[in-house]
TrEMBL record, chain A:
Record Gene3D superfamilies: 1.20.5.2700
Family matches, as PANTHER family: NADH-UBIQUINONE OXIDOREDUCTASE CHAIN 5
Family in the record: Belongs to the CPA3 antiporters (TC 2.A.63) subunit A family.
Major localisation: membrane
GO MF annotations, alphabetized: NADH dehydrogenase (ubiquinone) activity; NADH dehydrogenase activity
Residues passing through the membrane, by range: 6-22, 29-50, 80-98, 110-129, 135-155, 167-187, 207-229, 250-268, 280-301, 308-330, 336-354, 374-393, 413-433, 454-473, 508-530, 615-633
Keywords: Membrane, Transmembrane, Transmembrane helix
Protein name: NADH-quinone oxidoreductase subunit L
NCBIfam families: NDH_I_L (TIGR01974), PRK06590.1 (NF005141)
Keyword Cell inner membrane: no
Entry's Gene Ontology cellular component terms: plasma membrane
Organism of derivation: Alicyclobacillus cellulosilyticus
All residue ranges annotated as the NADH-Ubiquinone oxidoreductase (complex I) chain 5 N-terminal domain in the record: 63-113
Localization per Swiss-Prot or TrEMBL: Cell membrane; Membrane
From TrEMBL, chain B:
GO molecular function, one term: NADH dehydrogenase (quinone) (non-electrogenic) activity
EC number: 7.1.1.-
Any single GO BP term: ATP synthesis coupled electron transport
Domain NADH:quinone oxidoreductase/Mrp antiporter transmembrane: 127-427
Name of this protein: NADH-quinone oxidoreductase subunit N
Catalysis performed (reactions): a quinone + NADH + 5 H(+)(in) = a quinol + NAD(+) + 4 H(+)(out)
GO cellular component terms, A-Z: plasma membrane
Locations listed in the record: Cell membrane; Membrane
Keyword Manganese recorded: no
Native organism: Alicyclobacillus cellulosilyticus
High-level lineage: Bacteria, Bacillati, Bacillota, Bacilli, Bacillales
Membrane topology field: Multi-pass membrane protein
The gene coding this protein: nuoN
Spans through the membrane: 12-35, 42-63, 75-98, 110-128, 164-185, 205-226, 275-296, 303-325, 337-358, 379-402, 414-434, 493-516
Family, similarity comment: Belongs to the complex I subunit 2 family.
């Protein structure tokens, strides 16, 4: 089955080309139908690939000869890649279906599906790339698709700005990744992932100007910089909340389940490289832990439902990084797996609310429990899963990470994780109660609210089920099956990676603490937002009256945007102005001068072309005589 | 007693494609006599069928072991690769003719003359005897002279043909003169035999060898339109029917290049390696002058003529490197020449085809005919962009890969100065190639005006535009706008060329891999 894995990304590409040919006037049912059907087949194929995944299977063909080096293109199916294929194609199928309802009536409906299909293709091709160069190409392509989709409503100035911001900020990370890839190539002589990792695990990476261990740390950090950009980790986290300007299905697919998880995937894919240097792993863990807490603190006070979930995404991605960083490889990947479902669910449920009400402001919602029961119940499942309440999916994976942090000797990170878990439960249930409980705060909008059609509710229900049960894939109940499935990927590389195996038995105390902390967060949120007595307080918070300094600090996102503007953007603009002046007057002047001269030379030569064949003959004859004369002199005379 | 069957196989191995094309040419010639009227498309179809068979034969023998027949014809890597290219080009040109003959009167001789020219070209690719090579060259040349001048009613066609004939004859004479020196000092016309005695002969007669080399180079220079022997090219390209222009730019050049490659490598390698610097001189002059002189051109076909002069200069760069490179590195030189010629063929035929459609629709070959092409036909605009960007050497196109390959081999072989000129003149070429693209995406003046004019002026302008449109429709057109279905031939040709240009640009290994498997010597 692995040999046919190339079909998985190919089908969305076929859908993309088909839609391109069909044009933007195509009927909606055809556009959505073809896209969803083909991606669904991709999903079925992925399941087949996943079932048969074992030893890494690589299929390549020569793509480019550069000097003596042959660049190859193709696919590689490892256990991790196969898992990613399933996650990406599953979420993609559901989001493509959901979008049929959400984007209904949009003028550029077909274009939206084109972009989405292109994204699905790029993302699937990214996860099965056998070499770093191919991975980088698709890494950039998913970035491009993200740019196009965030700015899909480009006539909104915020959307255009957000698209630009997301692209530029992630580019910073991409530059690091590219540098890392080039250094790995120089040090190992190959782009091939297996070769590079083998060399890294055996400490055989070598460059002249740096010690071998230093090189390991440096390349790992550079690769991690790429992951930080893509997965919106501190300090490059600022783009993801703004990217919520895109249509909500895009947020669900790209900015929750797949593309932003690509950073985590990259770290997992290159794990032997990170494992070879403790410093790099520690960096990953602390950046992840810090981001998790920071984003959770910001999410406490946001009033835009999508921003709450966006910060939650950043926070959860931080968890995954934390898991990978402390050495709980399987736990990190497992959290990626469960998060893809419950976060896509939360986004789609939020999309359902936004679609029904036409607003994203939590303080204009309220009392929707009866009007939108499917959204209510599925959102609840997602929220419980995110809060880590037994037995929902998030409980198992989050607990795995926390237990991993303790087991590998990082009590400080465990504490951070626990605080974050408390905040997480609080902010998601704050959003939940604001949206569904209490009286309607905007009667007019409330009156219009209704559940979307089956194309919107079916994906919600499926994701709701997945968010409830996906945790059992790696629970003590099945002996940590997913972890056992994944870890053989690592044991190919001989660096004592045995220590990164999944735990043998569950730590019930840790589980109990996690659940209690989660319940405490929910209880606090309920006390503040669900009691009938809280109506007045909510109203004053909605009007943003007399809020304390801490609240303001969180609400203004710790002023990161303002600080970045002052430190990076403003000086950048100044330098740009100077360079622009230089370019305009000095460089352009020179270019114009050269152009004039060249053009003049062409004009002169044009007049040699007289049109008279006698002249042609004369020129040729004279040239021949001159050439002969020079040749004879060089040959040392005629005789 | 000769084993007849063995003999048969032997002949077919070395001369298979040549025999098939010859037979097809005779069949087409006879049928043309019999059918006379309105059978042009059928004749072209038969010719294409024959060439396709020949191509199949050539591909079947692609990796054949080197073998010699009658001491004259040979099958080897050079012969195989370039035979395939020549036959592919022939198919493209015949495809082009298929469309052209529906709209214009084409002389009956057109198709079979083309086939005889191809026979000559194949002989140039596979012969290793100076006499046979020369006969092949003359067969190609004479057929080309007639093909250019075949529209006897058009003064420009006859003028172009005559100029081509005069200059071409000078070239042939000079080439033959150069060959006589070689024959004079060695007593052989067979390249293998001369090659065996080469070392001693060249040591005894350095001046004669140099003279012979220079004369042969100049003779081939005329055929290849290298500067300063290029001046016939724009007149001939402009005067000839478009398929013939494309033929001159691609097939005739490919054949001349392969003959030059074979003769020069057999006769002058190693011992007279210092002579190869002359290739470098001609390459440099050709790249510089060809690109500069193209800058002020407004006539699209003449611009393509100068562009093809410049492109020939790029291909000459690897030739110059043979002298300075050890044998072990020659593979890269062969590969880069072959790759560039493949790329060049597709993008040039495609560009000529688009120019043909545009000039037919607008009734002029001035570059301004391109204005607004994107609005009239996005598909043609996209295809032309691919060809033009490839000719200029933008990434993701075949032209880029070809140029980079030549560039890197030049750097590798210490021909840095040639690489620098290649790069600098490519930059210059962007100016005129992008000039075309600018026009393609430019709005036609009549459409842009009403938008920003005042109300009254807008009404006036709209009226004027309407008058223009009506006028254009009413104007007696040389060829009334054909139904889209009848355009299928040329559009599919453009599609194939564009696809090939992109495939070679994105997956160069699709050609480089088969080339890498060839044993060039």
């Amino acid at each position: 089955m692995a040999a046919h894995a190339w079909l998985v990304p190919l089908l969305p590409l076929v859908a993309y080309v088909f839609l391109l040919v069909l044009g933007r006037r195509a009927p909606e049912w055809l556009v959505a139908g073809v896209s969803t059907a083909l991606t669904f087949i991709s999903f079925l194929l992925s399941l087949g690939v996943f079932r048969d995944a074992g030893q890494p299977a690589t299929y390549t063909f020569p793509w480019l000869h550069v000097g003596s080096y042959t660049l190859e293109a193709g696919i590689q199916v490892t256990r991790l890649n196969a898992l990613m294929l399933v996650v990406v194609s599953a979420v993609s199928t559901l989001v493509l279906l959901f979008s049929k309802g959400y984007m209904h009536g949009d003028e550029r409906f077909a274009v939206f599906y084109q972009y989405l299909n292109l994204f699905v293709f790029s993302m699937l091709a990214l996860v099965i790339a056998p070499n770093l160069l191919q991975l980088y190409i698709f890494w950039e392509m998913v970035g491009l698709c993200s740019y196009l989709l965030v700015g899909f409503w480009f006539f909104k100035p915020e959307a255009a700005l957000a698209a630009k911001k997301s692209f530029i900020v992630t580019r910073i990370g991409d530059a690091g990744l590219f540098a890392g890839i080039i250094m790995l190539f120089l040090a190992s002589g190959s782009f091939d992932v297996t070769t590079v990792l083998q060399a890294a695990a055996n400490h055989q990476l070598h460059l002249g100007w740096i010690s071998n261990d230093g090189l390991l740390v440096l390349t790992a950090i550079l690769v991690f910089v790429g992951a930080v950009g893509k997965s919106a980790q501190f300090p490059l986290h600022v783009w993801l909340p703004d990217a919520m300007e895109g249509p909500t299905p895009v947020s669900a697919l790209i900015h929750a389940a797949t593309m932003v998880a690509a950073g985590v995937y990259l770290v997992a894919r290159m794990y032997p490289l990170f494992a070879a240097s403790q410093a790099a792993l520690t960096t990953v863990a602390w950046i992840g832990g810090f981001t998790a807490l920071l984003a959770a603190l910001i999410a406490l006070t946001q009033r835009d439902i999508k921003r709450v979930i966006a910060y939650s995404t950043i926070s959860q991605l931080g968890y995954m990084m934390l898991g990978l960083g402390v050495g709980a490889y399987a736990a990190g990947v497992f959290h990626l797996f469960t998060h893809a479902f419950f976060k896509a669910l939360l986004f789609l449920a939020a999309g359902s609310l936004i679609h029904a009400l036409g607003t994203q402001d939590l303080f204009e919602m309220g009392g929707l429990r009866r009007k939108m029961p499917v959204t209510f119940w599925t959102f609840l499942a997602g929220a419980l899963s995110l809060s880590g309440i037994f037995p929902f999916a998030g409980f198992w994976s989050k607990d795995d990470i926390l237990a991993g942090a303790l087991r590998h000797g990082h009590p400080a990170l465990y504490a951070i994780g626990l605080v974050t878990a408390f905040c997480t439960a609080y902010y998601i249930f704050r959003a939940f109660f604001l949206a569904f409980a209490g009286p309607a705060r905007d009667a007019e909008k409330h009156a219009r609210a209704h559940e979307g059609g089956w194309v919107m509710t079916v994906p919600l229900v499926i994701l709701g089920i997945l968010a409830t049960i996906a945790g059992f894939f790696n629970s003590p109940l099945n002996g940590y099956g997913l972890g056992k499935f994944l870890t053989p990927d690592l044991s190919l590389y001989q660096t004592g990676l045995g220590g990164y195996m999944a735990p043998e038995r569950a730590d019930v105390t840790v589980m109990l603490i996690s659940v209690l902390v989660g319940l405490a967060g929910i209880a606090l949120a309920a006390a503040l937002y669900a009691r009938p007595a809280a109506v007045d307080r909510i109203a004053s918070e909605g009007k943003a009256e007399d809020i304390g300094p801490l609240y303001r600090l969180s609400y203004r996102k710790f002023y990161f945007d303002e600080i970045y503007y002052a430190v990076v953007v403003a000086p950048g603009k100044f330098i740009a102005a100077v360079v622009d002046g230089f370019d305009r007057y000095v460089v352009d002047g020179l270019v114009h001068l050269v152009r004039r001269i060249v053009y003049l030379a062409g004009l002169c030569l044009k007049y040699t072309q007289t049109g008279q064949v006698q002249a042609y003959g004369t020129v040729a004859a004279v040239a021949l005589v001159v050439i002969i004369a020079i040749a004879m002199i060089r040959a040392g005379g005629v005789f | 007693m000769i084993n007849f069957d063995m003999l048969h196989q032997h002949y077919f191995l070395t001369m298979g494609p040549l025999l098939v094309v010859t037979a097809t040419a005779f069949v087409v010639m006879i049928l043309e006599f019999l059918l006379r009227r309105r059978a042009q498309a059928w004749l072209t179809g038969i010719a294409m069928l024959g060439v396709a068979v020949a191509l199949a034969v050539a591909i079947a023998h692609f990796y054949a072991q080197p073998q010699l027949t009658l001491n004259t014809m040979v099958i080897d890597a050079i012969g195989s690769v370039f035979s395939v290219l020549i036959l592919i080009t022939t198919l493209l040109i015949l495809w082009f003719t298929l469309d052209y003959s529906r709209r214009h009167h084409v002389a009956g001789e057109h198709t079979y003359l083309l086939l005889f020219a191809v026979v000559g070209a194949l002989a140039m690719a596979t012969a290793i005897d100076l006499i046979t090579l020369y006969v092949g060259l003359e067969l190609l040349s004479v057929a080309s002279y007639v093909l250019v001048a075949v529209r006897t009613r058009s003064a420009r066609s006859v003028e172009g043909g005559l100029k081509y004939l005069l200059m071409g004859s000078i070239g042939s004479a000079v080439l033959l003169y150069g060959m006589t020196f070689i024959y004079g000092i060695s007593g052989y016309t067979n390249l293998v035999q001369i090659g065996m005695d080469a070392t001693s002969l060249w040591a005894s007669y350095p001046a004669v060898v140099a003279l012979s080399f220079v004369l042969m180079l100049a003779g081939m220079g005329v055929k290849l339109a290298l500067v300063p022997f290029h001046m016939w090219a724009p007149d001939a390209y402009d005067g000839a029917p478009s398929p013939v222009s494309a033929f001159l730019a691609t097939l005739a050049k490919t054949a001349a290049f392969v003959m030059l490659l074979r003769v020069m490598l057999f006769l002058f390698n190693a011992v007279a390696s210092n002579l190869f610097s002359w290739f470098g001189v001609l390459a440099a002059v050709t790249m510089i002058v060809g690109n500069l002189i193209a800058l002020p051109q407004r006539n699209m076909k003449r611009l393509l003529a100068f562009s093809s002069v410049a492109q020939a200069g790029y291909v000459m760069v690897p030739f110059a490197l043979f002298g300075a490179t050890p044998y072990t590195d020659w593979y890269a030189l062969f590969d880069s020449i072959a790759f560039y010629l493949f790329a060049y063929t597709f993008m040039t035929v495609g560009a000529f085809a688009v120019v043909e459609i545009v000039s037919r629709e607008r009734g002029t070959v001035d570059a301004d005919a391109l204005i607004g092409l994107y609005r009239r036909s996005p598909w043609l605009a996209a295809a032309l962009s691919v060809f033009v960007l490839s000719l200029a050497g933008m990434p993701l196109t075949a032209g880029f890969v070809g140029k980079v390959y030549i560039f890197t081999t030049a750097i590798h072989a210490r021909g840095v100065w040639l690489a620098v000129i290649l790069f600098a003149t490519s930059v210059v070429s962007f100016y005129y190639y992008l000039g075309w693209l600018r026009r393609v995406f430019q709005r036609p003046a009549a459409e842009g005006a009403p938008a920003d004019a005042g109300e009254g002026a807008a009404a006036q302008a709209a009226g004027a535009a309407a008058v223009q449109v009506v006028g254009a429709a009413a104007a007696p057109d040389v060829a009334p706008a054909p139904a889209p279905a009848r355009q299928a031939a040329i559009h599919s040709l453009i599609a194939v060329c564009a696809l090939a240009t992109l495939v070679l640009g994105i997956v160069p290994a699709s050609l480089l891999h088969p080339l890498a498997l060839q044993r060039w010597f």
